[in-house]
Amino acid sequence: MIVLLLIAVVTLVFLFVKQRFNYWKVRGVPYVNPTFPLGNLGGTGKTQHFSAAIEKLYCKLKGNALFGGIYFFINPVVLALDLDFIKTILVKDFNSFHDRSVYVNEKDDPLSAHLFSMEGIKWKNMRVKLTPTFTSGKMKMMLPIVRDCADELERCIVKETAGGGEIELKDILARFTTDVIGNCAFGLECNSLRDPNAEFRKYGREIFNFGKIGFVKLLLTQQFKSLALALRTVTLNPKVSEFFLKVVSDNIEYREKNKIERNDFMDLMIKLKNGQALEQGSTDQQLGTLSVKEVAAQAFVFFFAGFETSSTLMSFCLYELALNQNLQDKARKDVLDTISKHGSLSYEAVHEMKYLEKCINESLRKYPPVPNILRTATQDYNVSGSSLTIGKGTSVMISPFAIHHDPEFYPDPMKFDPDRFNPDQVAARHPMAFLPFGEGPRVCIGMRFGLMQTRIGLATLLKNFRFTLGARMETTPIFDPASAVLTLQGGLWVKAKKMDA
In this structure, are residues 357 and 455 in contact, taking their beta carbons and an 8 Å threshold? Predict the structure, then answer.
């Protein structure tokens, strides 16, 4: 009887999986044959980065339809292939695809309930609340904090290069962005540049320290959210969660008790907690106040979404400029000429460095830190011009990494060429051919801040140092397969020579 029962169970599982793997075939959608149990994700997190896996699927399917069918484990997923269709998903019919459907466990893991993962009306209300915190006026108020951290970054590299050897720049840049966001989001002097083992840096590392097993767990919770919730699964290290909750709680209590204001992100969040309007005529009060846990969740997403992505962007940009010395010279001249014109590294100056901006954009093209965009159909969606329907709850994957490496949009895509972002070339391309921050109502809310700290950091470094690649660096970068963001495996080893030396 036991043997018969086992045979019956195995047969039912086999038939269920076969039925799931026929999902796209019976609908007449071009698809890539999956294998059990990972679907089309074989090797992801172990031998290849998630972005590389999606790019291969994109290349196999492109040209056959508006979208193709792929599988994450046994779940069917839409892979968007056509740029007009992508614009429809992200912008035109946003109301049918407004959720990312990211795994959230607010009860056991309150920091997971942040703006990036929120859905529906809760997301909309929070977005309205937070939008005024990222205006150009607020960025100008935070600029002195970023500039002070950049000065400390310069001192750190001078110290690290005193012996004349190679330095691992990726970690130093992560310490810089940790200090910037720790100051702006939490109002605390993190001192990561002075002390690599400072608490904020320590716990910042832990956020992205998934490992191969942890990365697969992250994918599983994302694909089987109901089961993960029933099992009370948490994806964030409990020690990390405890640290950030305590930091925010203590910070709020101290500031309110001592009536301290610093013109930073935490000041703005405290105002929201207390139902105060951030700008004249604002209707924040009508949307309710924030709890301390909600403030902590938003500060946390500002931290983890900002420090790793910006430091990764700076790393790849400096990697390419170290590899292409003539481009580095042009970027440095742009920085020096602009600072000479304005007299300092002001808000206006960093936004006037047009060649540096093109270098940053080309880095975002070739190495988008967040290489994939996920949306979920919030209702059955009839695809215009066809008989196909994307069922409610079906995930839609958009791959900026694949699009940015598509020779149809970027000839010779592996070449680093900032002139791709000359105004005439930008105007000639489809607007959805460049998606480093997403697009539409859910475009990255912290885009301005991330670019500001990147510009200031790069301008400070190029003004003061010449970078060349270290002997241990590969001329073809290798991506860390277990990282959630696109990052260099083994770090960025360079030689940095002081310009006035």
Answer: yes
Helix (H, G, I), strand (E, B) or coil at 163: coil
CB atoms within 10 A of CB 114: 23
What is the three-state SS of 28-43?
CCCECCCECCCECCCC
Whether residue 110 has pLDDT greater than 50: yes
Q: How far apart are CA 175 and CA 169, in angstroms?
A: 10
Using one digit for the tens of pLDDT, what is the confidence trace for 244-253?
999 999 999 9
462-465 own/partner pairs: CB under 8 Å, 24+ apart:
462/321, 462/328, 462/331, 462/332, 462/335, 462/356, 463/332, 463/335, 463/336, 463/339, 463/499, 464/154, 464/157, 464/498, 464/499, 465/157, 465/496, 465/497, 465/498, 465/499
Q: How far is CA 458 from the centre of its chain?
A: 19
Q: Which amino acid is at 269?
A: M
Comparing 233-242, 246-255, 416-425, 428-437, the range with the smallest average pLDDT is 233-242
How far from the centroid of its chain's Cα atoms is residue 156's Cα? 26
CA–CA separation, 129 vs 278, rounded Å? 9
Q: How far apart are CA 62 and CA 325, in angstroms?
A: 36
Predicted TM-score (pTM) of the model is: 0.92
Give the β-pairing of 75-80 and 395-398: parallel
Backbone angles phi, psi at 164, to 5 degrees: 85, 5
The C-alpha angle 335, 341, 342, rounded to 5 degrees, equals 90
